[in-house]
Design brief:
single chain; alpha/beta; Spore Coat Polysaccharide Biosynthesis Protein SpsA, Chain A; 2 domains; seven-stranded mixed beta sheet; two-stranded antiparallel ribbon; 9 strands; 13% strand; transferase; lipopolysaccharide biosynthesis; Nucleotide-diphossugar_trans; membrane; glycosyltransferase activity
C-alpha cells in the first residue's frame, strides 16, 4: 500500500490525519520475521492510521528474503526492500527512510525483542506533546550482564557529550517526525545516534520506557569490538554537533596544544645553545619539540582546509547552514 504524505493536524479531539511507516531492518531473521510481521500488522491495523510496513533485508544469507516475499503476498501493507549485500543496520534503516512518505516513522529491530505493543503509546506521545523524536528506554533489559554494563557506560558518555538526555541510545524502537528526519542521513553505524544528530538540527527529543523481551530465534549480532567502534562514533557525533561550521576551532585548538609547548621547548634549547654553549643535538627534547611543532602546524593546516570544505558544503546548497523552528 503506497502511503501518500499528509500534513499532520492536531485539534482538541486528537489527530485528524496521520500516516505511519514502520521500518524494520532485518539480517538473518528468518525464524522471527513472520511472527513479528503478524504482530505489527495486527497492532497497526488496530491503531486506525494509514500505514505501511517497510521490511529491509540487509543481504541475509538465510531464508529471510524468501520469507519477506511470502509475507508481502499475504499483507498488502508490506513494502519489502532487498539490499544487494550486507551494508549494516544504519544503511538498511536509511533505505527504509528513503522508501517512506509517511508523516510519522517508527523503527524497531526484527528479532522480536522490541514489543510492537509499545508503538501506540510512543506515537500518541509524539503527537500529543508536539515532539520530533520519542526514543525507547529498555529499563528492564533482557541481555547478558556484560552487554548491559558496557551499554550503560556508553550511554552515559554519549548523553554527557551530546547533551541529549537519554538513557538508551541503542534502543532501535524509536518514533520520528518525518519532516525532521529528512534533515539528516545516517552512514556507517550512526543509527543509534539519530536523536543526537537530529538534536543538532533542532529536534525536540523525549524518552519513553518500553518493554524488552529475551531473544528467542537466531543469535545476537553484538560483539565486543562494537563497543570500541561506538567510542569512535561518539567523537564523530560530537564533531558534527559542535564543529561542523567551525572545524578550525577543533583542529586549530589541538594544533595549538602541540605547537605552544613544542615552540617553547625549541626556544629553550636555542637559549641554551646561544648563552651556555650546550650541545643540544643529541637531546631527546629537541626531537620531541620538533615533532610537536610539526604536528601542530599540520593540525592547524587541516583546520584551514576544513574551513574551506565547510564553506563549500554550505554555500553549494548541499546542507543548509541553519533551520527555522517548526511552526
Amino acid at each position: 500500500m503506497q502511503v501518500q504524505s499528509k500534513r499532520i493536524s492536531i485539534n482538541k479531539s486528537g489527530v485528524d490525519d496521520v500516516s505511519l511507516s514502520v521500518i524494520v531492518p532485518v539480517y538473518n531473521e528468518a525464524g522471527s520475521i513472520a511472527k513479528l510481521t503478524e504482530q505489527l500488522i495486527r497492532q497497526l491495523r488496530d491503531m486506525g492510521y494509514a500505514f505501511d510496513l517497510i521490511l529491509v533485508d540487509d543481504g541475509s544469507t538465510d531464508e529471510t528474503a524468501r520469507e519477506l516475499r511470502l509475507l508481502s503476498e499475504r499483507f498488502p501493507e508490506i513494502k519489502p526492500r532487498f539490499l544487494a549485500r550486507n551494508y549494516g543496520q544504519s544503511t538498511a534503516m536509511q533505505c527504509g527512510f528513503d522508501s517512506s512518505e509517511a508523516d510519522v516513522i517508527v523503527t524497531l529491530d526484527g528479532d522480536l525483542q522490541n514489543d510492537p505493543a509499545d508503538i501506540p503509546m510512543m506515537v500518541e506521545r509524539l503527537l500529543r506533546e508536539d515532539l520530533d523524536v520519542v526514543s525507547g528506554w529498555r529499563r528492564q533489559r533482557r541481555d547478558p550482564f556484560l552487554r548491559k554494563m558496557l551499554s550503560r557506560v556508553a550511554n552515559r558518555i554519549i548523553a554527557r557529550l551530546t547533551r541529549v538526555d537519554l538513557h538508551d541510545f541503542g534502543c532501535s524502537l524509536k518514533v520520528y517526525r518525518r519532516e525532521l528526519l529528512i534533515r539528516t542521513r545516517i552512514y556507517g553505524e550512526m543509527h543509534r545516534f539519530l536523536p543526537a544528530l537530529l538534536g543538532e538540527v533542532g529536534a525536540k527529543v523525549a524518552e519513553s520506557e518500553v518493554n524488552h523481551k529475551p531473544r528467542v530465534h537466531g543469535h545476537s549480532k553484538y560483539s565486543l569490538d562494537r563497543t570500541f567502534r561506538v567510542l569512535l562514533d561518539i567523537v564523530f557525533v560530537v564533531f558534527l554537533r559542535k564543529y561542523l561550521q567551525r572545524p578550525l576551532h577543533f583542529f586549530g585548538g589541538a594544533g595549538l596544544v602541540c605547537l605552544i609547548p613544542g615552540s617553547a621547548g625549541l626556544g629553550y634549547l636555542v637559549l641554551l645553545k646561544l648563552f651556555a654553549g650546550a650541545d643540544i643535538g643529541t637531546r631527546p627534547l629537541l626531537v620531541l619539540s620538533a615533532l610537536l611543532v610539526l604536528v601542530g602546524v599540520i593540525l592547524i593546516c587541516q583546520g584551514l582546509v576544513g574551513e574551506v570544505i565547510s564553506r563549500i558544503l554550505f554555500e553549494a546548497g548541499k546542507r543548509p547552514q541553519y533551520y527555522l523552528k517548526r511552526e
